[in-house]
Amino acid sequence: MEQLVSRLEAVTNRLEAVASRSGGGSVKVVADDDPAWFDDFKEYNAKTLTGFVNSTIALGGDLEHLGKLVDDAFRSHMTLLEIAAHHNRPSQADFEALLKPLSEAISKVQDFREKNRSSKQFNHLSAISEGLPFLGWVGVAPKPVLYIQQMEESAQFYTNKLLKDFRESDPKQANWATSFIQLLKSFSGYVKDHHQAGLTWNKEKPAATPAALTSKKPTISSKPAVPPGPPGGFAPPPPPPVQAPTATHTSVENHGAEDSRSQLFAQLSKGSDITLGLKKVTDDMKTHKNPELRNQPPVKSSVLDPKPYAPPSLKKFSAPISKPVKKPAVFQLQNKKWLIEHQEGNNHLEIAQCNDKQTVYMFKCNLSTLHVKGKVNSIILDSCEKCNVVFTDVIATFEFTNCKSCKVQIDGFAPTISIEKTDGAQVFINPACLESQIVTAKSSEMNICVRKPDGDFTEYPLPEQFKTVWSPASNKFLTSTMDLNL
């Protein structure tokens, strides 16, 4: 309400100043049909968004290129808001076409982060990649503020890392991280004030179409002015009133209605004589009395004849199936962690140079084999299917999680072997590894294969079924495994 009052006061002062300067001459008034919410956004864009882009580019390195991509996303976002300020809500298909440039700009930022995982500014890239999708609030209804807050929380995970690393050593980096979170918070406040139920459209204008993206939109300074008024500053005369229907036209319509009513009453007044005008049906016109009529071929039905009733057919509804997005394969050392992700049919994965401070993480791989030559701290297989791992020693644990039909061969020693939420796990060990601790949970088809002196293996299935009975002696339930080796 305070913003509205201040805007009205500003307009009033401007008109008074123009009137005082004009005297008896003509007054030129500049037309501005931008709604108030778009004026506020332009001010926010100039102060906050543009400043953040400049500070991002100033950090240099990979952020210099990323800042340009962010600037493209902000421009696409502003173009969409400008279309909404001058058009009514489009159809769903047209709205998706209008969103396409913004979606592509955001995807370029996220792709740049994925292609530069080894960058020294990876936390910077990740903060932008996780937070920039807040621009997609334009397609969220009825609570876009909650969506922006979710993007803020995702970005804050990485900005907190930056604050921890650079708060003392490089305040410029820390200030950049803080400014991005403040940007998200302030924009959330703007959306709450002007677009609380979703993007606001101009209901007084025609519906937006994809052609609005390519049409040249006038800038604020180039908007046409209203034609000058008459001398003396007086307002132009009002338009002439709409002419009312003439009495002659009304009388003609009433006269036609009276004629049709009089004809109807004249026919009703005939009584039983109303049927005298009907034509009599003779015997030669009757089918049951005229054999020639029965021998005639049937008359073909016309296309215009009514069709017999048929119940409406029910269309089978099937929900759209989204195709899984194939992500690029990853095989790299990040800090002290080997990342092997999204490998497909690769049986030549090998880690030759490693040490006991490094960990190995294999995620969502399929039909692949990994060979770790050396001692590492731990190895984890997560969401892999039909994969094999061969290693020598681990200091902590080897772990299966959410895997299917996977195998591991331990040539040395592993203190702990963990199998969790896995269907189909085979562990090949040597006698030196018999002292290992094996922990299982929510898994099935688990086998431990122990190497014999002759090189063959003896297979021992791990129990999957448990039996629980009540013990009166201990006054509690006792659970024991079902022996599968009997």
Radius of gyration: 40 Å
Largest sheet: 7 strands, mixed
CATH architecture of the domain at 33-212: Alpha Horseshoe
- Which fold name corresponds to the CATH topology of the domain at 33-212? Serine Threonine Protein Phosphatase 5, Tetratricopeptide repeat
The number of helical runs is: 10
CATH class of the domain at 33-212: Mainly Alpha
SS-derived structural category? alpha/beta
Q: Approximately how much helix is present in the residues?
A: 25-40%
Strand order, largest beta sheet? 1-2-4-6-8-10-12
Number of strands: 16
Query: Per the principal axes of the C-alpha atoms, what is the gross shape?
Result: flat
| Element-level helix/strand string | HHHHHHHHHHEEEEEEEEEEEEEEEE
Strand content: 15-25%
Task: Describe the 3D structure.
- The chain is α/β, with parallel strands linked by helices.
- Among the domains are: 33-212, Serine Threonine Protein Phosphatase 5, Tetratricopeptide repeat (Alpha Horseshoe), CATH 1.25.40; 330-481, 3 Solenoid (Pectate Lyase C-like), CATH 2.160.20.70.
- Helices cover 37% and strands 19% of the residues.
- It contains ten helices and 16 strands.
- It has helices at 2-22, 36-58, 62-86, 92-114, 122-131, 144-166, 171-194, 211-214, 247-268, 291-294; strands spanning 330-334, 337-341, 349-351, 359-363, 369-376, 378-382, 388-394, 397-401, 404-410, 416-420, 423-429, 437-441, 444-451, 457-461, 466-471, 476-481.
- The longest helix is centred in the first third of the chain and has 25 residues, at 62-86.
- The termini are far apart.
- Residues 225-243 have a biased composition (Pro residues).
